[in-house]
């Protein structure tokens, strides 16, 4: 699935801007894991790529996302829960607090990433939508 993504001005991309993102999701291990590959292009060149593994932890009743990308280079572990058709997950790491939202509706989902210095004030970082 490929769609235009908007990056809001941030310390990582001061000018903000748009890019074309391509995401591929597939189930693994008999449906116990969802594996996501993401690639973002600017001016026809790959500017950012990431790999994620989603898993539902039945003991804790939470969804986890183990995420690696070309920006941070280290593992980020997001945790969160579903609220209706929206999965809200967050993590804290070397780049601060991050929260992502996946809203799934039929053959479309929207994605929003927010950042925060203190978990009280949140700022938009990236958003976009994907269609099957």
Describe the model.
By secondary structure, the protein is mainly beta. The chain has one domain (2-131): Calycin beta-barrel core domain (Lipocalin, Beta Barrel), CATH 2.40.128.20. The protein contains no helices and ten strands. It has strands at 2-7, 17-28, 33-42, 45-57, 62-69, 76-83, 86-93, 96-105, 108-116, 123-131. A ten-stranded antiparallel beta barrel has the order 1-2-3-4-5-6-7-8-9-10. The radius of gyration is 14 Å and the shape is globular. The termini are close together. The model has no long low-confidence stretch (mean pLDDT 86).
CATH C-level class is Mainly Beta
Assembly context of the chains: single chain
Considering the protein shown, what is the CATH homologous superfamily? Calycin beta-barrel core domain
- Poorly predicted runs are none
Number of helices: 0
List keywords for this structure.
132 residues, mainly beta, Lipocalin, 10-stranded antiparallel β-barrel, 10 strands, 0% helix, 70% strand, globular
